[in-house]
Specification:
heterodimer; A: 93 residues; mainly alpha; 0% strand; B: 114 residues; 3 helices
Chain lengths: 93, 114
């Protein structure tokens, strides 16, 4: 009984988060300035972290929690790199 | 896994999905890059942290649950840092505010600031 509730909540959360990631892609395509696109890509990265965590809960595979941590690190480094590239013109002088 | 644990996991996942929804709606609807950054950096971080906390409640204090706690600490450290960097680069690019009411404060000459 309770397991059915948990499975329904997890599936609904995965569908909702995937839809939100697609909607954030609208801001990537449309966004007027470059920082808008960077903010949208950062939001997409955080949503993908949440999707990996939800997938770890759905399948019971604990490895995907580590996958979400690696995705968070990649998102942070890419945000730093793009924000440096936008104002400086290059990343490593 | 008993019923209380399942209920706690379901509640944390629901709260996390709600905050992710709030953050993405703010990203889509706010008129300015600074406002959008405010919404996404705070609400989305809370949502992902709540889902990782559900992972901690699911897996227990060892193995993947401990990795979830490390992920929460990492998100809380890096999301404000990234948002600050984006706003700083937007300010240096000269992205204006929405509307005429808000302005940047006066530039103060400090030693060491560029």
């Amino acid at each position: 009984m309770a397991s059915d509730l948990l499975g329904a909540v997890l599936n609904g959360a995965i569908v909702l988060t995937a839809a939100l990631t697609l909607f954030a892609g609208y801001r990537v395509v449309r966004g007027p300035t470059v920082p808008d696109r960077v903010v949208a890509l950062d939001t997409i990265a955080t949503n993908v972290v949440a999707i990996a965590g939800l997938y770890a809960l759905t399948t019971g595979e604990g490895l995907f929690v580590t996958v979400s941590l690696v995705l968070a690190i990649i998102g942070f480094i890419s945000t730093i790199a793009v924000s440096q590239y936008v104002i400086e013109g290059d990343i490593i002088e | 896994m008993n019923a209380i644990q399942q209920f706690v996991v379901a509640a944390l996942v629901a709260v996390g999905s709600f905050f992710l929804l709030i953050g993405t709606v703010g990203l889509l609807r706010f008129p300015d890059v600074y406002n959008r950054m405010h919404a996404s950096s705070k609400a989305t971080t809370l949502g992902a942290s709540s889902i990782l906390l559900a992972g901690f409640a699911y897996y227990g204090p060892q193995g993947a649950g401990l990795t979830s706690l490390v992920g929460i600490v990492f998100l809380f450290l890096t999301a404000p840092t990234g948002a600050h960097l984006i706003s700083r680069s937007a300010h240096k690019m000269g992205v204006p505010f929405y509307g005429q009411e808000a302005e940047w404060p006066e530039e103060v000459d400090e030693p060491g600031s560029d």
